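Handout, section 3.2

Students often ask what a structure token actually looks like in practice. Rather than define it abstractly, here is a full record for JAB1/MPN/MOV34 metalloenzyme domain-containing protein. The first block is the sequence as you would receive it.
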Amino acid sequence: MSQQPNQPFQTGQQIPSILVPALEFIQDEANFYVKMNLSSYVLMPGNVISLYRGFLFKVEAPEVDLISRKENCQMTDISFDELLKIKLSRNPDIVLVSNFPCLYHPHFTLPTLSRWSSMILPPLQIQKIRWVDYEETNLSGTSGVSLGFYLLKVAKSLIYQEGYIKENTSKIANNEALEWYLQDKREHPEHYPTDRINLPSHKFKPGSSISYQTNFDSQDVDEQSNRSTQSAQLSRKIKFTIQEQKPAYTPILREKTDLKINRRLDSDFRIGHNSSMQQEFYLTKEAFQTIASHISWGKYSTSNQVEQGGILLGTVYKNPETNIIYGMAEQAVNGSLARGSAAYLEVTHETWREMLNQVDRIYPNLQIIGWYHTHPNSLDVFMSGTDQTTQRRLFSQDWQFAIVLNPHRTIWRAFYGRNSTECKGYVLSE
């Protein structure tokens, strides 16, 4: 059952099913990205080969001029159908964004610099990890291969789908990874593909139905298996149901008094078609310090190079004179068990249970009024399509908020309601 639209997310209830796209396509005024929420192998410190989930790639090609260049243009998702219409004249450049993780794959290059000793450097100073196609296809003078199908090829190779790893070719980006793959495939053929993904076939036609969602399973399996000591496990996710909860929470009627604000920490509010002045969001000093400590605000650390998140606790008020709703997050509980990557955050059932247990035990008088998560490294702070789905499913009321923070760029933005409308955000000085 899905959550009723007029019901809040409350402690003690189970988490609804949220379908996560295996592929998401994001454009902004200057760049085009593809987000692959699937698992592949990476090289961890100590030369340990592990499964890792969630990668963000930038696509560079002459044909990738997808939107008009407007001021204050925000990132938006685009459809697969649109990508099928874009014909390529040459192979595009597929570049892994951010400085973690280090893909260990026959068709992805390794950086020259050590990615582990270079984490203190800005991401642009680290050599990029690029996709190397196994076919240098001459696309000019023909009908052309679409950008959509080309990106499917990359995704199918990343999950080691049959036929998308060329074993006998001179065009190999990482010979060591190829040798490891060939040996491992002989000894453990059950490892491949490494993720259960329904990706469109090359027979897909525009206008027909398309499904590129990750499959859900009934049990939770650790995604990061140490390949030097044990067999790799398949990456899986969990499906949950939710029960209707009553009564619904409503904001408290109260006139807003003067609040002392730390102006250096105002949100990066951007006026646009999806922003509003009818809601305001406030973090108490204590709540902000809790979040800042969790995500290492203003610093580079091993843990904050991947997405992190948690829930926001507090009270929501409504000014009876102006009808402006303002949320006050008094505390935050971090999802210490959440699994993050540079482009993806998975909040498992165990993570929710651990956070909700803390709420019941420590903050029984506070309401869950929203959630927070990070976009690390060079990413902007915005609500992606997946983020908006989470907001719609779990925090759809006008008094429920979401904040997105980038700890490295020290910027954040606040959003509310089922449409992820942006509002102004503030941090109290006391």
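Discussion prompt for tutorial groups: The longest helix spans residues 349-362. How would you have guessed this from the sequence alone?
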